[in-house]
Amino acid sequence: MRLNRFTDIGLRSLMYLATQSRAEPITVGELAQQLNVSRSHMVKVVHRLGQLGWVLTQRGQGGGLWLAESALHVGLGQVVRVLEDEDFPVDCSEPACPLDGHCVLQGALDRAMQAFHAELDKLTLGTVNHRRTTTILMQLQRNYRREREAG
After folding, report:
1. Could you tell me how far CA 11 lies from the centroid of its own chain?
2. HSE (CB half, 13 Å, CA atoms) of 100?
3. Cβ(54)–Cβ(14) below 8 Å
4. Could you read off the pLDDT of 42-92 as tens digits, one per residue?
5. 65: nearest Cα among 38, 27, 37
6. Going by C-beta distance under 8 Å and a sequence separation of 6 or more, which residues neighbour residue 19?
7. What domains lie within the chain, and their CATH numbers?
8. Is the Cβ–Cβ distance between 54 and 68 less than 8 Å?
9. pLDDT-based confidence at 3, cuts 50/70/90?
10. Do residues 102 and 14 touch, judged by C-beta distance below 8 A?
11. What residue ranges in the chain does DSSP mark as E strands?
12. For 94-137, how does the pLDDT look when each residue is reduced to its tens digit (9 = 90+)?
């Protein structure tokens, strides 16, 4: 299974925001810089995460991003299902497959995708950010603050 880039950035963004331990919000610019993503792509990801209610956003002076408390309890399988926006790993109708309706591969791939999501559903942002991950993410945040204050 391979996640699309949008989903990958969405998961990384949620993990980064889950370590937020400061009063001031995280900006889209910070998130883009820390995750090595273009700002324009990050804006699209954050917008979608906000629509889903997993990220709280505030525009203007003092604005930024916060992780919604409820996002800590969402299964990562659900996050992937929503961000991937695909139900099946292959589309047998485009181009039309002559084996459609007579092939066991489609069913096997569907079951594999369900197992993939079920395994991810065992994890939440609250459980995936273990100590080592959180330590690294918090260090990134401290480094960003120091760079911003220095120059």
Report:
1. 2
2. 9
3. yes
4. 999 999 999 999 999 988 887 889 999 889 899 999 999 999 876 666 777
5. 27
6. 129, 134, 137, 138, 141
7. 5-150 (1.10.10.10)
8. yes
9. confident
10. no
11. 55-58, 64-67
12. 788 888 778 888 888 888 888 998 999 999 988 877 666 777 77
Residues in the chain: 151
| Crossing angle of the two packed helices 131-150 and 5-18, in degrees rounded to 10 | 80
> 């331990």: which residue's tokens?
21
Sole residue written with tokens 């480094």: 143
Provide the total of helices (H) and of strands (E) in the chain, helices listed first.
7, 2
What separation in angstroms does the CA of 64 have from each of 19, 27, 52, 89, 91?
15, 5, 17, 35, 39
